[in-house]
Every structure is written in structure tokens, then in C-alpha cells.
Amino acid sequence: MMARAATILLSMCRALPGFAASYGRAFARNRGVVLAGVLAAFAVLLAPTHEAFAQAQTGLEQIIEPPQMGSAEPMLLQADEMIYENDNATIRAKGNVEIYYGNYTLLADSVVYNRNSNTLAAEGNVRMKDPDGAVITADQLTLTDDFRDGFVDALKLVTKDETRIVAQSASREAGNVTVFRKGWFTPCKLCEEDPTKPPTWRIRAGKITHKRDQATITYKDAAFDFFGVPVLWVPYFQTADPTVKRKSGFLMPSYSHSDELGSTVQVPYYFALSDHYDFTFAPMWTEKAGTLLLGDWRQRTASGGYRIEMAGVFDNPDDPLSPADQDFRGSIKTQGKFALDPYYSWGWDILAETDETFRRFYNLDSRLKTDRVSQVYLEGLHDRNYISTRFYNTQSLLFQDEDFSEATVYPIIDYDYIVGTPVIGGELSFNSNAMVFSSEDGTDSNRLIVEANWRRKLIDPIGQVFTPFGRLRGDVYGIDQPAELDLTGSDDIMSEDPEDGAIWRGNAVAGLDYRYPFITTTGSVTHTVEPIGQIIARPDTLGDQQDIPNEDALSLVFDDTLLFDIDKFSGYDRIETGTRANYGFGYTAQFASGAYLRAVAGQSYQIGGQNEFDTAFYQTSGLATDASDYVTGVYFQATRNISFSAQQRFDQDDLTVQRTDLGSWMRYGPLQARVNYADVPGNLPTAAPAGIVPEADSEEILAAGALAITEDWSLLANMRYDIQEDQTITDGLGLRYQDDCFMMDVTYQRSFIRDQDIEPDERFLVNFALKYLGAYTMSTSAFGGFGADGSDSND
């Protein structure tokens, strides 16, 4: 290998005339030996002496990091002139020196190897590029022959991600300590028009020490510059090496102020206990509400991971509206998920707290939260089988909620199976559901549901699409204390002392779905018009389903997305009966640019049998009469810049609007905006308890937008407004600066949410982040407390 490399080296050498003559015939006779010696010297210098660093490197480690290559890796050298100085025990390559070794490239005006000191010195316009793409520029680079120690004069380093390090000198000591003297660091890109212009921010220090074995970077006599102006000086500070994913130490502190909590200071400390588990302790001192202790444990295993978040405070609130009835308030929140095999997994998402406002009061959760849902689950999907087993517990956070909003499900099991081979030319599937349910209002119910579904799609020669389908279903319910039920949708169950026991219910469905799409093209637009008809026949149920507690079919929004569903109820506890026809049409316009327009309109009609929507609870659904309300939907997508959707329901008698939902998003030049609108009448008579169906009309608009003033500056705004009550719910204005390495938000926000001891809030927020150094947030609040990060968007 050495002889072969020497041959390559010899063929690349461009010696000037008279070079050999200046050293006589002895050199000419021995030039092969000399060149082999030069090659051997450089091979020794560039040979690896340490194991590869396990983590990705940054510019701080790329400066004098030994190349990680095999000893058999060939090295190529090219220079205008090579001189072997036997008296000085040096080998010198001069003029346009180029050294290629593996993925490393070294360029310099001259390179000298000193055999006495075992050092390699590159001088003049030194440039070295490593395998990661980082380019080091220096006046002089000196290394020992084992690459253990080295020295760089007038260093300039640019990494692949544009991070820059400039230092008067840099040296590597003891094999793992790199010291930069009179240098500065910045991850910001320099101005292309004026590279001498200071970057957005940088850190200047008299001495920067990087200890690889401790994974720390220490700055002494350091100053932070923003836009070339010094704003902060510190004699000493230390950060973790950016290449280390986790290291024990203090995290960025935070400060906030509010009427409820007063001034708050939070200083988290991170414990890197292992490469697969850690712990963060983040006490938060508050001026008015004690010291909140926060802990966050995270751990990963071979099959998954879990997390435990703990919070607690010893404080007795004076607010008479507070639900806290003891000195200690706290919560435990935990999540986990583990794989049993490639197809099945289990996990949990559980939250327990002493009272319903603790987490919102201390801003651990958003103040808009209205309930808590905890669950433990097992689920799997394999081939044509799906199974899900979930244990639920629900709790309301609102003061005015009834007992029925707090319940436990242990468990609810769903199993679905699709037969692999066609049955009568169609697809046969089976679905089953089992649930054990207990409510705080004293109602206990159990159920088992099994159903079989079949459908087949047929297309005739002229393009008509016929889809016959069928369903068989059988249910059995076990009910305890049904007299306590309020949400059955029927007055029958309200009779005195109804009997406990089992309720049987069965149903059979047969139907046909018909579609006939017509397609035509005008210019660059393809039009599709599709009339749709559907007939569904089924007898009345076997058994009185009005005696069954309605726990999962309370939410019903009749719109175009439900028009052609076989059963329009949202859950298992209610099923449609009788014969029903659904009819309408669909229209689609597909543009050559990729934009499209889609519209759907139609109506549902109860032809015969019992209309299960004709009960007091569902009178406002639009399906209570034989002829339902009309529903429409329009969806428009103009490439990536504009989207719009509109869903409406019209009264079947006078076409008055019963419900409207609008959504839009646009991006035009420097402007981005999103607007949502909802109009939901609620003044029709209903048997639902207060809070389930609103008694008054509800009309709201939600808007958010951003306007880019320049490449770096933007204006932000958001608003949620109750039109019916003429009341702002939330709004905010903001100013943002963001470039490649720095972000700052200045925001003013208001919230008018009120619940128990949660009061309306007004706050001013300043948030900024530095690339590689983390983020800091400061907020002030005139009303109500907010979290240390000044936000109200916690989950």
C-alpha cells in the first residue's frame, strides 16, 4: 500500500526546474525513498488514535478532531515543490499544497513535518474541510503526529449549518480540552451584501473552554452582542455541549406577574440520570400563592416509554369561590405507551388532582378546559382484525355541571373483523361492542352489541353505480336504577320506580345506494355532476330503546357529512328505525392548476315506521319531522393559498337558516389569515337538561392573522368574539421579529373566561429565543395569573 501511494504521490508532484539539481544526485537517486517517507509521515499524522465520538459533532469539536479512518486509507499529496531537509529532520511541501485523506481536505501555502517534535505545521491561507462539511480557515495550524494536541492561529470556522467561530487562537490540550482565546461565537448567517456587518447576536469572550470529557463549554469575560451592540456582560457562565442530548444542570429561568399569583420566579434543574430516563425539578415561587413544587420524570424502555408529572403546593386560598377545601393542593399526571408486539400496544393517560381548578389556577393547563378524561387502553390492528379495550373516567371542571357528567367506563371493548374472501360478491364485516358504565348520578348500565354488515358495489355499462347493503344487529343492556336517568330522550323512563333488569333490542337493515356520475370538460376544468339516492328499510326495533340510557348518542350535528350515513346517531345507544330515503346531488369541479370545488346538497325523508328523532331531546336536530331540513356543503381549495368551506342547514318549510358553519384560510403575498364562523340556534324547545343543549342562540367568530411587514418583522392578531352576546371571549395583538437565529414576540392578550376562582385576564408577554441557547419568557398580567411561560395554551 505504501509503494502504491508513493507512486500516486510521485505522479502528482509538480517540481520546479532545478529542484533536483539543487540537492544533487543523491536526492535524485533517493527521491522515491524520500517521497515514501513523506507519505509515511503524513499517514502517521492523520491516523486515528481515539474511538469515534458517539454523537454528532458541532463546530466546537470539529476544529482539531482526529479523522476517524482505517489505517489502510490512502493519502494523496500535491504541491508545487517538495524539500527534504535532513539536517533539520523536516519535510517541507511548498506552493499550493493539497492533502486528501479519506473525506478530509487540507489546503495551505506550505506544510512542514518536524520529525524531532513530531508536529505537522500548515502555514499560509490554511483551509481544512472535514467530512461534516465544516470549513476551518486559519493563518497557521499546528498538530502533533497523533492528533492529540494542536494549535490554530487566527481561526475562522464555518460549519455546515452556518455556525461561525472566530478566535485569535485556538489550542487543543490534554487530548480533550479545546481553548479559544479572544474569540466569538454565533449561529447567525452573515449579511451577504456586507459580510463585515455584525450578526444578529454573538457571544464574545476572552476565553472559551470546551471540555469534551465533561461535555461543557465555559465562557470567561463574556459579552452578549445584539446587532453589534453589547447588552450584557458576565464574568463567567457555563453551558452544556450542544452535541450532548442531555446533561444535568439549570435550565432557562422564567418570570411572570399576575394579580392572583403576584410575581413568580421559576428555576428548573434537569437531572440527566441515564441515557433512557431523566428528571426535571422546577419549583415555582409565587408572591401570593405559596411555592409550587413541580417534578417531571421521563423514562424510555425497549418497548415504549412513560412520563409522570407531579405538582403540589401547601397554600390555603382565601377566595370563597375556590373549590379547594384543604391546605394542600396538587395533581399527578402520567402517560405511557408500550408495544406488546408489532401489532398490539397498551398504555394509559391518567390525571388525578385535589380539586377542579388547581391546574388551571397555577396555569398548568389551559383555562378553557372543561373536563378531565383519564384512560387505560389496549389496542391492536393485525391483518383484518382490530381490537380496542379502554377504561375511562370522566370528570367535569365546571361548577354548574350535573352529576351525570362524571362517570366511569370499565371497560369499553370494540372488536372489528373483515372477512378476507367475498361473500355473494361483496364485503362482509362484523363489529361488536361491550361496555360497563357507572355514573355519579347513580345510574349503572352494561351492554353487549353485535352486528354484521354486508355491501357490494355494482357498475353497469352506462356508468350507474348500485351499492346494495344490509345489516343485522342485536343488543342486550343491563340497567340498574334507571329512575335516575335524565338523558334518555323520552318521558317514559321518568315514570316512578321503573323496573331494573335486562333490555333486549334488535334491528335489521336492507338498503340500496344509487349514484350516476356525469363527467364533462370545459376548457381546463373537469365537471362531475352526481345525483345520489338512497333507500333504507328497517322495521321498528325489537324492544323499546327509549328505556335504554342514552350515554354516547347525545351529540348530533345533522349536516352534509351525515346525510348518506346508514345510521345518523353518534353512538350505539340510539339506532334509527323505520324506512328512510336520503337523496341529493354532488358536484365537483377539478381545475388543471390543482384547485377544486365540491358541493353537496340534499334532504332525508322518513317514509314509514317510527322516527327515532321525533323525541323531545332531538327536536332541534333537523330530523324530527318526516321531511328533514335541507343540508348543503361547499368546499373550495385553490392550490395551497386559499381554502374555504361552508355548511348550512335550512328549515324544510320556509328555508330559514337553522345552522351555519364557515371556515376559511388564505395566504396572499405577505398576508396569512384564518376565519371561522358558527351560528347555532338554541331557542327551540327541548327536554335536555341545562348545559347540554343551549337555550339561547350561539353565534361566534374566530379570526387569526399574520402580516409580514419585512422579511423579519410581522404583525400578529387573533380574536374570538360572541356575536350574540356582543362580548369578546379572547383577543390579542403581537409583534414578531424572526430570522435564522433569533426570535422575539411582543404580545398583548386578553381573556374573559370566568369559572369559580378563574377570573378575566389581561396580560403583556415578551418571549424570545436564541438558537442553540434556549428560550426565555417574561410576562405581566393585570388580571389573573398565567404560567411561567406567559401562555395559556397548556394541554
TrEMBL record:
Annotated Organic solvent tolerance-like N-terminal domain residues: 78-142
A biological process from GO: lipopolysaccharide transport
Gene3D superfamilies: Lipopolysaccharide (LPS) transport protein A like domain (2.60.450.10)
Residues that span the membrane, as ranges: none
GO annotations of cellular component type: cell outer membrane; transporter complex
UniProt KW Phosphoprotein keyword: no
Cellular compartment(s): Cell outer membrane
UniProt KW keywords: Cell outer membrane, Membrane, Signal
Function: Involved in the assembly of lipopolysaccharide (LPS) at the surface of the outer membrane.
Assembly and interaction partners: Component of the lipopolysaccharide transport and assembly complex.
Protein name (database record): LPS-assembly protein LptD
Organism per entry: Methyloceanibacter superfactus
